[in-house]
Amino acid sequence: MLKVLTVILWALSVQCLASGGGGGSEASAGSIYITFKPPLIANFGGPGRLKYLKADFSLRVDNSEVAGAVQHNMPLIRNNLLALMARQTDETMSGQPGKEALRQEALKEIQSIIKTEADMDGILDLFYNNLLVQK
Questions:
Q1: What beta strand segments (E) does 6-45 contain?
Q2: pTM, two decimal places
Q3: What stretches in the chain show pLDDT beneath 50?
Q4: Cα–Cα distances in angstroms (integers) from residue 79 to residues 44, 94, 96, in the given order
Q5: Residue 112 belongs to what domain range?
Q6: I need a labelling partner for 72 at 20 to 30 A (CA). Which of 86, 116, 120, 121 fits?
């Protein structure tokens, strides 16, 4: 029952999040935003005191077919993004360039997964809704 409810809620959220313009000049009228729920949480930085990284992402995709492929492959996407987050260091998470590099690497990882698993393009961008770093 919970899985059915989750699928129904996801389908409604995809319909509600379809962009009608007004998100910048790069946004197309058919863009769909997918929010990663729950946010991703990983420890990072190697030995010593535990450090945590919590990332709440939204993914912009080209159409509903790509959105379906993302939802279908979400376990693999989440796994690979958690591994990417765990590889971060204090240096990469201490400034804006490192956080932007993490965002770009995560975007490339998702694009690669969808290309490999579903033979689709259409992953347009990845955005931080929230990023927390605890050192």
A1: 32-35, 40-44
A2: 0.78
A3: 1-27
A4: 15, 24, 24
A5: 2-134
A6: 86
